Amino acid sequence: MPIKKAIRFGWYFTGDMGVLDEDGDLYVVGRVDDMIISGGENIHPLEVEDVLSAHPDVREVTIVGIPDSRWGQKVVAYIVPENKELTSEELDSYCSNSNKLANFKRPREYRFVDEIPKSPVGKILRRVLKETYQEDIKESV
């Protein structure tokens, strides 16, 4: 986040998103910068990750928004499978049949990887996945 955007009226805005529970406790649930806007709808990666991580053959999952000429951004799932026979079709069916995920939030693409890139403190590096995605697209053209 650029410094001018982060400091406003003497306050530092981190870009963190949070929710207050009924007791008034604040829980940080993600970053505004991670929000995916697809077809005018806001999609937070955590919502989609929660559904996919419940699949028994998914060891780890990360969701990123990739630029898309039609929708603005598309939802792309990076999956570390528990079972190498796991398919995109199976995961898409799993998401479709979930009553926790609206259709427009479903990933439009599934990419199977050996590991999710993380910082030394364990933070998922979504920007690395986005950059890798863009490089893959350039190479395939």
Model description:
With 141 residues, this protein is of the alpha+beta class. The chain folds into two domains: 1-32, no CATH class; 35-140, GMP Synthetase, Chain A, domain 3, CATH 3.30.300. It contains four helices and nine strands. The protein has helices at residues 3-6, 45-53, 88-96, 126-140, and strands at residues 7-8, 11-12, 16-20, 26-31, 36-38, 41-43, 58-68, 72-81, 109-112. The strands form four sheets. The chain has a three-stranded mixed beta sheet with strand order 7-8-9. Strands 1-2 form a two-stranded antiparallel ribbon. It has a two-stranded antiparallel ribbon with strand order 3-4. It is globular and about 50 Å long.
Short key terms for the protein model shown above:
three-stranded mixed sheet, alpha+beta, 26% helix, single chain, GMP Synthetase, Chain A, domain 3, globular, two-stranded antiparallel ribbon, 141 residues, 2 domains, 9 strands
Can you lay out the helices and strands and say which pair or pack?
Elements lengths: L2 H4 E2 L2 E2 L3 E5 L5 E6 L4 E3 L2 E3 L1 H9 L4 E11 L3 E10 L6 H9 L12 E4 L13 H15 L1
Parallel strand pairs: 8-9
Antiparallel strand pairs: 1-2, 3-4, 5-6, 7-8
Protein name: AMP-binding protein
InterPro entries: AMP-bd_C (IPR025110), AMP-bd_C_sf (IPR045851)
Keywords: Ligase
